[in-house]
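Weekly puzzle thread! Below is a chain. First person to post its structure in token form gets bragging rights.
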Amino acid sequence: ISKIIFIGGNRFNEDGPFLSFASECHKQSIDFILLVDPQRVNYPTKSMGIFKDALIKNNINFEIIDGIKESIINKHLSKNTIIFSVHCRWIIPKKIIQKMPNKVFNYHNLSLPKQRGAAGHSWRLMQGIAESELNIHYVTPDLDKGNIILRKKIKFPKSSTNLEKCYNYISKHEQILFKNFLSEKSWLNIKQQELESFYWPRLDTAKNGYIDWNWSARDIMHFCNAFDKPFDGASTYINNKRVFVTNAETADNNATFHPYQSGLIYRIYEDYLYVATIKGGLKFKLNKNKSNDIKIKLGDRFITPLDKLYSAKIDKSKY
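Winning reply:
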């Protein structure tokens, strides 16, 4: 590998994984360029301003593109060039894959084929699954179906209750995985088993993150965790105003509530609101940046309008 065409970039409000991959390329004197979309280039990073500023600060060659075209790829090709997708928004065209057989790769930070698609860690948190994988695989015309060349099994600690904590936990493993990829010494060739596959679509916190108060406390907790930091949090309504919640936990697990009590605030202690559900209690805090002017008292009820719950399930995120 003498040159890498990266397509994609960092995660939202994170310094990785692309910047750590770029650092490893610098260390090994591997030429590279990043092709990045207009939205992701303006993502916030954790410590370096927006992603564009971080790219400039780290002397990273990049080009902002609106889509993957053969002409764009061709102008960056040279001897022993590969394409490496990392959180890429687009499907790489079949023409490019066929033109560069076994030279187009994707980094997928979830189990394959059990967690295909996008927003994978949000779906994983929703399901309450602690075990996952980091994978690098060949790209084929079929999404996330190429043979796996590197795999790292991951088990998240109980403290990894939101996306931010999950990404912090895997960051060091991502760096090691990519370093092993560049060495080309331990590559595998694992065919994915289709009958073990699951696919999940992208999510948008603002559109999809509405709480259904017909769920149990545990289901709501997992759902809230899936949309928590670095995003605004899952949302619902109280006194006709939309609020976003964070730090959700189950509470009073042995308490028995009638379905009509679901959504009612039965306790306020410190910064936590305690809410009844059809199975046990739930406690959480409000995202003050999004809900600072909301006045709440005991006996108020959280409720999500039916039209919001309906649109949350049918409205797919563009990205």
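Puzzle host: Confirmed. Bonus trivia for everyone else. The chain has ten helices and 15 strands.
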